[in-house]
Structure formats: structure tokens, C-alpha cells
Amino acid sequence: MHSDAAPVVIVGSGLAGYxxxxxxxxxxxxxxxxxxxxxxxxxxxxxxxxxxxxxxKDPAQLRGASAEDMAAQLDARIMxxxxxxxxxTAAHRIEAGGKKIAYAxxxxxxxxxxxxxxxxxxxAGEVLQVNDLAxxxxxxxxxxxxxxxxxxxxxxxxxxxxxxxxxxGFAVSVxxxxxxxxxxxLPEPAAARMREALxxxxxxxxxGTTATAISRAGAQLRVTLANTAVLExxxxxxxxxxxxxxxxxxxxxxxxxxxxVTNRFLQTRAADVYALGDCAEVEGKVLPYxxxxxxxxxxxxxxxxxxxxxxxxxxMPVVVKTPAIRAVLAPPAGPGEWRLDxxxxxxxxxxxxxxxGLSGFALLGAATSQKRALTDQLPFVxx
Length: 383
Prior knowledge:
The protein is α/β, with parallel strands linked by helices.
């Protein structure tokens, strides 16, 4: 039976928000819990969106437990389709979905928004972005228009979508200003292997340039590039990165920088207000990946349950979902040099810092078998 005390309120029903709610309930079964969701509050795996075609999953199959199911599992009140309008940190109160809600502790698990590039042309508004299940459903419906997809962005998500679409038989062209895919993460020889592997699936590259305009020509779209080339498409998908959602926190006077600024306890400068997940900047680090979210959620759950726990981030390599070539990345945080060991079926790139210590790696193909051994040699991201 819940008390009449003010609840713990989690704003956000993505991986961060629901993981925290689950971890908190393991430790505290009695404190009232409220989860506020911008969408329908259903649980689903966002990382699955970029390889759902290969997995044979349509949007309905990706949808997991409903808001009602989650409310029952968590013994919580779930508020679907509720936007937070204001946060009053002095009064410990928020307004969401037209209702005023007092909180004992407030956790902002707001996520991040896709970055948009300015584009000219009468069809600029038809560029799609995928950042949740609803937008993914719109993207899948758009694929019924035809088989030609122009993808803006050759980063992690762009490469995953390119692999998934090409494997499913779509004609994919990828546009990116960098000279190679995954240019932020890979040394040139490794990036070349990624490029060649996706090329073998049929992916075409327009690298070293950007899209400047999208226009409609009858039933098709024309994508004009800065180098004057024109690509024809049925669908244009932008996957050029994410920006932490900070506006509502900033409006409430909570300190923000690249994300919502927190200490190692995920605590903001506002009393009893915490931030978690893609929106959080923890000790200067914004880490929009699954493993940092899991580590942070477990630590914060303990803190909320009465045992203050600072988050610690071990080395957390990222597995890139590109079946055309297996890839595991542990991006280095600072300067140094890459050393490569290449074989016909794999490539291991190790990054050493200025003191000679291993500070990151990129493994492709058969070299991904070295993931565990190299991870054990890396320093903690946040000790």
C-alpha cells in the first residue's frame, strides 16, 4: 500500500526511464512512483529500430509491454501523451499534461532529439528522422513508395540503417561530409573496410559532400548535393546525430551545457532533481549508448532508495549492428596514435595515448574476438 507521500517522478519512458523504474522497484516497493511519457508509454527497444528489417520485425512487433502493463509491473502511475510544461524546483512541483504534480525527487530522462540540417527545396519537409517507435512506423510506411533511399549521415546509426535497408533489397545512397563512414570513430584503413563491406551489399556513397536541397519531381524526390550531383529517391532519411533535450530544464533554471549538467550521483544543481540517459551530461560526459544508461540507472536507483551511489563507467565498447562486417568500437577520449593489425578476415586498430597506454580500439571482422581482452586493458571512463 502506497503512502500519501509525494512520489518519485520520472520524466521519460525510454530505456533510461523504465530501466531506472525497474531498478528502483527492486529496492523500494512502497514509495509512490509516477512515469510521464511523451508517447503512449509502451516499452520497446530503441536500438532495435536500426536493424528491424533484417530481424523481420514490423513496428507492431517491436512494441513490447503497453503502458497499462508497465504500470502493473512497476506498481506505478504511467501518464501517456503528457508533455512537461513547467518545472518549479523551489516548490518541488511540475506541470505535465495539464496537471500539477508534486514530487519528492524528480528524474529527467528526457532523451535527445535528432539534429536537423537546413535544406532548401519544396520537399525539405519530407525528410524523415527515426528517433522513436512512432517515427519508425512512419518511416516503414514511407518505404512502400519505392526502393530508393537516400540516407543523410554515415555515423553509427546511418551505417546500421544502410546495412539493414540494403540487406532488405533497397537501393541505398549515403551522403556524408566526411571522407569515409564512421569517420569519427575509425582510422582510415578501418573505415575503408566498413565502406567496402557495405558497398558489397549495394550501398552507394556520396562522401565529402552534403545535401543542400530536396525537391519533388512528380512521384520522386531529387536530392541536390553541395558538389552539384543529384540523387533520385523515393524516401530520404536523416540520421546525422542527436542533441540532448535540455530546453525544459534550462527554462526551469537548471544548469545545462551540452546536456543537463549533473555530478557523479546524477544530481543537478537543483535540490532533488536528477538527470539520466541521453539528456544527461555526467561530469562533462554525454554518453548516449545503452551500457552507460544501464550503469547510471542502477547507481541512481540505489541513491533514490537511500544508499547514495556515484556512477562508475568502466570501458564500454559499442557493438555496431552491421552484419555485413562485425564491428566493435571503443573510441579514445584524447590524442594518441593508432596501431593497426590487419588480416584478410579482420582488422584490429588499437589506440595508444601519449603515455603509451591503451586508450581505445576498433575491431572489425574476425578481430572482434579480441573485444574482451582489450576491454580489460582499458581505463575506466569515469572511475
